Amino acid sequence: MEDYLETIVLLSEGDKAARVTEISKARGVKKSSVTSALTKLAQEGLIEHERYGQAKLTAKGERIAQDVFHRHETLRHFLAEILKVDPEVAASDACKMEHTVSPVTSERLTKFVEFVLNRPQGEPDWLKNFNYYLEHGKFPKECVITCQRESDRKG
């Protein structure tokens, strides 16, 4: 049901409502499935929907939809931009993961992604080293030298 709310928020602009046909195309499901889901969402007070009409999120539905969308985007950014997962795979995986991540983990992951991607100093060295490792299957020489120096200082 969260996916339907997220789809409605993505298809809606401002006060515009989403049509069953648009939701059906976006979700890749039959119109009858959309109608059934919309009926359930309306019963739960998450949307306003009349038979054969458009679906419009209620305030409660909007909050839930925005939360799902936010979790999805955070996970997608983490997977695609930090772990360098193919963007299509990242989007698909984020869609699956967004429903199981706790609010605490989601908030912490959001902060992590913001911290890494918005650093005033640019891309951190550890991320550059990770990208090198992904590409070459081994640590870059600079990383090995730095790690050895740190180990020598501690030991």
What does the model show?
The chain is mostly helical. The longest helix has 24 residues. It is built from 8 helices and 2 strands.
Map the helices and strands.
Layout: H1 2-11, H2 20-27, H3 31-43, E1 47-49, E2 55-57, H4 59-82, H5 87-97, H6 103-117, H7 125-136, H8 141-154
Antiparallel strand pairs: 1-2
Helix pairs in contact: 1-2, 1-4, 2-3, 4-5, 4-6
Distinctive features:
2 strands, two-stranded antiparallel sheet, 155 residues, Arc Repressor Mutant, subunit A, mainly alpha, 69% helix
Biggest sheet record: 2 strands, antiparallel
The CATH first-level class of the largest domain comes to Mainly Alpha
CATH topology value of the largest domain: Arc Repressor Mutant, subunit A
Count all strands and give the number.
2
CATH architecture title of the largest domain: Orthogonal Bundle
Portion in beta strands: under 5%
| Form type | elongated
User: What is the total domain count?
Assistant: 3
SSE sequence, one letter per element: HHHEEHHHHH
Q: Given the helix and strand composition, which structural class is it?
A: mainly alpha
Overall pLDDT score: 89
Total helical elements = 8
Low-pLDDT sequence parts: none
> What share of residues is helical?
55-70%
Mind telling me the CATH superfamily name of the largest domain? Answer: Winged helix-like DNA-binding domain superfamily/Winged helix DNA-binding domain
Quick structural summary:
By secondary structure, the protein is mostly helical. It has eight helices and two strands, in the order αααββααααα.
